[in-house]
Amino acid sequence: MIELFDIGKVFRNKDIETKALSNINMSVSDGEFVSIMGPSGCGKTTLLNIIGLIDSPSSGKYLLDDKLVSDISERNRTEMRKDNFAFIFQSFNLIDDLTVRENIELPLIYQKMAQAERTIYVNQVLERFTLKHRANYFPNELSGGQQQLVAVARAVVAKPRVILADEPTGNLDSTHGEDIIQQLIQLNEAGMTIIMVTHSMMQAQRSHRIIHLFDGHVVTESYSKVATNL
Ligand code: ADP
């Protein structure tokens, strides 16, 4: 589904040029759960942003479902992003002035879904993530673990094909972190493709494949025990 060939990314700010990615070759198939690891600043977020069509590479080719992304107009790319990808961030990124229900509903409003249908979709995820009793709470009335659960619910409500998770457990203690990993595993088992940046080898081992980045390059790829048991 996702194929990257020789992808490079250079950021140019005034006189400074930062090479964030070089010669990235990787692919991700439908239904895979892939982890990306590497030290801070090695290009993990940049890579997720390129895969999720938030940013464009400076060089190389990106094929999404065999279509060359650079050939697709800006408008169609935005549509493609909405149809395929949802993000989960380390810092939850919920909107403080909106309730749990309203936060989760937001991606459906962006998709211009009718109100009646939105209510059905939101109720489904509230049920799935056992958040129904918190539907009218505001984010600051919830623990970090609960907030991230809401962020996961918001990510999946529009049924994206791919979840891009950027250190989703980075701000959580190990118990709440484990809850989120369990949810991601269950979503993956239900067919969702997941690409997750993590600093935790233990968490990465729960995915199918681990891609190690260093200084903008893929240094190694390894299959985890989960994959070899499949
Ligand atoms: P990681 O997620 O692995 O910490 P990033 O992808 O955030 O790494 O960053 C990779 C490199 O690109 C870093 O040197 C970072 O400073 C630089 N970088 C990222 N985004 C920008 C930007 N918008 N402008 C300039 N430099 C950037």
Work out the helix count.
Answer: 8
User: What is the rounded Rg?
Assistant: 18 Å
Bound molecules: adenosine-5'-diphosphate
Largest sheet: 6 strands, mixed
Tell me the total number of β-strands. 10
Determine the structural class based on helices, strands and strand pairing: alpha/beta
Low-confidence stretches: none
For this structure, the quaternary state is single chain
Q: How many structural domains are formed by the residues?
A: 1
Shape: globular
Instruction: Look at the structure and name the CATH superfamily.
Output: P-loop containing nucleotide triphosphate hydrolases
CATH third-tier fold name: Rossmann fold
Distance between the termini: 20 Å
Strand content: 25-35%
CATH class value: Alpha Beta
Q: Mean pLDDT, nearest integer?
A: 93
CATH architecture name: 3-Layer(aba) Sandwich
What's the helix-strand series? EEEHEEHEHHHEHEHEEH
The residue fraction in helices comes out at 25-40%
Order of strands in the sheet with the most strands?
6-7-8-3-9-10
